[in-house]
Amino acid sequence: MLYSTNEFRFLEANLKQLSKISDEIIITICSHFYSGEPENKELLQKSFDIISNYDKCIIKLFKWENSNIKPRYYHNLSRKLGTDIAKNKWLFFVDADEIVDDNFKDWFETVKNTDNAYVLTCAWYFRDPRYKAKSRETDSLLILKKDCHWDLDNELERSQLYQKLWEENRIFHGDKSPLLGLDGEVLSHHYSWVRSKEEMLRKVRNWGHKDDKNWHELVEQEFNRDFNGTDFIHNYEYEIVENKFEI
Fold this sequence. Notes:
Blueprint: E1 2-3, H1 8-21, E2 25-30, H2 41-51, E3 57-62, H3 73-85, E4 90-93, E5 98-100, H4 104-111, E6 117-126, E7 128-144, H5 158-167, E8 188-193, H6 197-206, H7 215-222, E9 238-240
Parallel strand pairs: 1-2, 2-3, 6-8
Antiparallel strand pairs: 4-7, 5-8, 6-7, 7-9
Helix pairs in contact: 1-2, 6-7
């Protein structure tokens, strides 16, 4: 799990779910956020306290390295560090705001001997965990360790990495479409934008796409009104659902 304290509110729910499916949970944490801003030490300690309640967890800390190169390596380095110390045959890469569904374990038992890598279908949420997008996304990577290689100098975004895997015929069975669980439901839930105004402003100040748009203005506009049923990231339409997890 790639973790920063900007995702603190999701940590407990994520660990509860991962504990149901994993023999080991490797949590990689950098001394700084992606932007180079130092981590929140108080929230880090609270995070360590939560993690200590889960005996399957292994924490791997790494230091920020200032560079003139746009630090795409931050994510690849985190995943490489986790890969290097993982003992299991299968690796499942998730961020702290991606929470696996209860149907994952049964689904995995049916496919683990079929292919060497999968990209899971997720549900996307915005502002409140009850607001679920009608559109689905592809998200977390599940892959055999022997086939997993992270290039620290490669600036590939995760979606481009998935495309590269497809082109190399290393991923998916059948028509290479995103995979759903046995009951046709999503396999994970992506809460990246389920945040208060303050949390969202902190996210857009520190994340890898901080220079792509005027995120600060978009967040301010969003919270100057009640939720209007669409988001400013993808323009997805939303429905109201029951909150699945305590976040």
